[in-house]
């Protein structure tokens, strides 16, 4: 269509159903997704250049843009925004971080259907529930104009400042499912367009669910594959991000029959003339299997074996030394077929999904009642140990031992061959009070409490050495 002015609000209509443009770069800011409109935008390109931190030098910091500065203790001007994160760049530099990995920032559906103890609906704050793969969320924008695309300018400014300070940006991307769910789920765009093209279905026409969220994107259908590649090219070339961490990456390697063998899209990305230059990181498992070490050569992978081994060793589990030695020396037994060798291994002990490091040494059990699922959600096998008392304690000896165990874990992480990743706030003893699945907690449970930095100054100093 010609002569449509920038800023025009629109939606598509298919068979009488109004849907959001799945290729829109921005939507209006409405609490109810069905009320959102797509916004016509001109593509303006990036104002920054990739800085290419060598893999051997990478130090990743996994961060949630909103939760990082949501607490009043952050002392930022516009808390929980792109601009507020920018204010914390000096802190990241002081910590020695040269790569930040942002939790999802594609626009998402934050509805969970769960109620808190006061019967208020809990919102999905993590963002692993996309409605589009091109539109940047307005949830972290400091602009009050709900019908503008100011969030894109603000995000690009953040990227520019991060790059100027020698820090790469990796996006956690969710191409394994959408917020439309399965049969009976919502209709935002893809179902109305052609659900049999965009989603994988069984022979009985049932939505396949390797994501655990009701549907699975049909990633190796040409239409879907092209959409994903165009999305990645947009973020890489036009916003300037440096790489991507793929949530439930095996979904991208499954064919239309759900078989994980061909993994053609995973191959195409690592061989792509442009995207092969981006940092490509896989979470190498989904509900259908565990494939760490089986990604096409050239990919980096979250190393779940590293996480579990370090946790078990620190807890004092029997006969963990031989396994720990393998993990410290780059998990060659896992990544021997990858041309990057031990640099294929993303070593981590904690991430957004699970206990924080302080909770790992403070709780034997998960405490997820506030999530509204009767404590049935979240991982049960955490390899954690509370060191004498469950959770909060005033016992100075226990507190001292917990801090020492954190130092021990961080020391192992930093001396191990591979690429280390630190969860935001672990360097200052961030706690979620035993909640190991806090995806729906946008409150002090998940906000980084910057006042704890003073109490954990010795841990912070250890990481600066």
UniProtKB/TrEMBL annotation:
List the Gene3D superfamilies.
Glycosidases
InterPro entries listed in its UniProt record: GH, GH13_cat_dom
Q: Which CDD domains match?
A: AmyAc_Glg_debranch
**Organism superkingdom:** Bacteria
Q: Which UniProt keywords apply?
A: Glycosidase, Hydrolase
**Domain spans labelled Glycosyl hydrolase family 13 catalytic:** 62-454
GO MF:
hydrolase activity, acting on glycosyl bonds
Q: Which GO terms describe its biological process?
A: carbohydrate metabolic process
Enzyme Commission no: 3.2.1.-
**EC category:** hydrolase
Instruction: Tell me which Pfam families the record gives.
Output: Alpha-amylase (PF00128)
This chain belongs to the protein called Glycogen debranching enzyme GlgX
Native organism taxonomy: Bacteria, Fusobacteriati, Fusobacteriota, Fusobacteriia, Fusobacteriales
Q: Which gene encodes it?
A: glgX
